[in-house]
Write the structure tokens for this entry.
Amino acid sequence: MQLSSLLLAGQGKSLTSLFSLLYLILFLPFCLVVYSILPKKLKKYFLLLSSFGFFWLISGELVIYLVLSIFSIHYFGIWIDRIGTQMKSAIAELPKEERKAAKQGYIKKQRLVVTLAVVIHIGLLLVLKYSPFFTTNVNMLFEKLGISVKLAIPTYLMPIGISFFTLQAVSYIVDVYRGVIKADDNIFRLALFMSFFPQIIEGPICRYSQTAEQLWNVGPIKYENLTLGIQRILYGMMKKIIIADRLNLFVQNIFDKNAEYEGGLIAIGAVCYTIQLYMDFSGAMDAVVGTAQIFGVKMPENFERPFFSRTISEFWKRWHISLGAFFKDYIFYPVTSAKKMKKLTSNARKKIGNHYGPLIAGSIALFCVWFCNGLWHGSAWSFIFFGMYHFVLILIGNMLEPIVQTVNKKLHIDPQWFVYRLMQILRTTVLVIIGELFFRARGLKAGMSLFGKMVSDFSFTTVNTDLLKELNADIYDLAIVGITLVIVFVISLLNEKGICVREALSKKNIALRWGLLYLLVLYIIVFGAYGLGYQAVDPMYAKF
Amino acid sequence: MQTFLKHTLKAAVFMGGLVLLLFLLSKVFIPADGTIDDGVNTVNANSIYKEREQSVEVIFLGDSEIYAAVSPMQIWQEYGIPTYCCSTSAQKLWYSEDILRKAFKNQSPKIVLMETNALFRKFNFDDSLMHKVENVLPVFQYHNRWKVFADEALGVREENNSTTAYKGYYPSYKIKPAMYLSRYNEKSDQLTEIPNRNRSYLKSIKKYCEDNGAQLILFSTPSTVNWYYAKHNAITKLAKEIGIEYLDMNIPRDEIGIDWSMDSRDTGDHLNHFGAIKATAYIGKYLSGKDGLNDHRGEAEYSDWDKELEVYLAKTEKGMKKALKKYNAAAGK
């Protein structure tokens, strides 16, 4: 087993999956045992130590990025706070008429500090993640212009999760500036908030006010939390290992052998990829929330059954919630509430009415949000297109809203009618799947080609069991994926109706509870896509 | 404290029950020893169990590079040496060792040719742990046999005899020209790292072969994707260090004559049947020069090989004809 090799930094690569044996059989149990033995006051320090140990194992010396980020936001936060304190004491001594001007001076100073902190964090992310994309495009431009200059394309080693913890750092510093939270003078508490091991790879992107205090005040493990947490992890594991991983080879075959198949098969591939991505990412989030629950920490949910959404806007309020909320709070609102935008809105209201008036400023902010959202997912034109695609869809939705309402009224269609809602859900799902096709394709050109083929050659004439088998999806694979999807659908439907299955079951007798739990574990072991003939699939969102 | 003990006891009973269930399930899932079901995803390689005892003289070990490049039936046709490909896709060395030990149960090969691509394949903690768990609870290894059970329940299970005609070889008639030849052609003095764990597995496989009277030889099949000079250098050095013969089929390129515009099934990674014919011809000639390997053509005990050769030739000729027709049509010839 060569455990000694794990002591080497960056050697615990398989830890990047919260469903790996290394995590579930060794790392997590070890943490739980030591955590349980330690006295209450040391538990939080142990969590911090294990979080850094975890990050060290998966990222090696790149842990330095996390350390520097923590130090910087700690001191920037204190700096902003100190300016605030200085401001209070200074203006208290000033006559009333001079207070406003003095206050503005201090606020300007705070703004400068917060801008500096944000620029450092986002700048670093831009350099590490986007400079190869930028230089490649500059080179292409030079080539088109006939300039014989070729910039060297830089490559940097990036720690896993940098896109997640950078946003968390930015949210902390901006919240301190906004006065939503006080700067934390305890660097260990801040470090634990930034590095808590289950969330460091794929999020959710937490706010300081959501988890920092909870993490710092952890207590003994409660039996109920332990069982509920394990059940949540197992549920996520079922989604990941039975559905997402089983679809992986099939999806790879469709997308990586560009445009060789007829449109119907490409459409099936796009549907399967959407399912794979959802099951992979939401399954990982189940493991994050479940692990946190074991320690008595309530993590914010990152998914709320997005495929029950009736519009694209609603979809993005239910899918990767913490990212959407980040963009809303730190991009959309600041843009719309800027002085010039407010003026634009008030002028537009007068000219084009109360619905379309605010839409202009809102659309500019929306553009910024979706541009950033696309870019956050990766440095490629296909991701920018993905962002713009959703921007346009939401924009059209906003613009058509009054017309749709009028038409519904005239045709006496109740928007709450089941069939109407179902049609909306189906439409939203189809639009999401098209977006995911571009998201998964190997570049924008490939995405366009796949989409073109899907639309122009939509047929299923070549689809048969032999072809499916060749594409690593025999009829049994599809059947087991289908059955598991039905299970997930039923559980999601109950959740949608406000019923928590785990809590409902916890009230049942032990024979039923244990029976179901055994069934779930054996179901995963027998029907999981692992072992010979399967490749372990890294968490899909870890690369973004 | 009492509650803690109660909960601990409960958890222990639950875990005990789970382990018991896994043991019982393992009994259901483990296939009969020495059947092709031993390795549900690797039926081709495991079909060696169907071979007559002590009949195979050479075993090929490694990943998909082998079953795409070496056709034992062609070697039989040309030199009468009974060989077998025990190769599986993305094979890791722990599995190479496993399948080798299983093969030696019924066979006493004189030569084991091991492809080198697997030597660079890293495997992590999860692989090692899973391998150990599989030995205790075989349901983890054979869990995919639920498909076999489903076939049986539906009455659609077919006895897979056809694999024996290929002897572990997996012909592909797709023609997809190699795309990136620059790295393949670029000479280099660098050494690609061979993971330590793989080095120890190789030593262990070598010792096992020697203890059982077989010679272990390393060889690299032609591949523009998985082979480059830095890998060649690393294997050459390692082979010298531990005293193993190394045959690199990417070096005598003119002699083998792979045409990368025709002979690959997937843009230069694996060979197709056209490429495999050339690679096999080379390896057959190489083996024919080895001591201790005999020509068994025409021997009564090997009459089934002659019969299977007819099946093999009929199938491959049909496949090639179809592929060439398609290729020529696409090329407008």
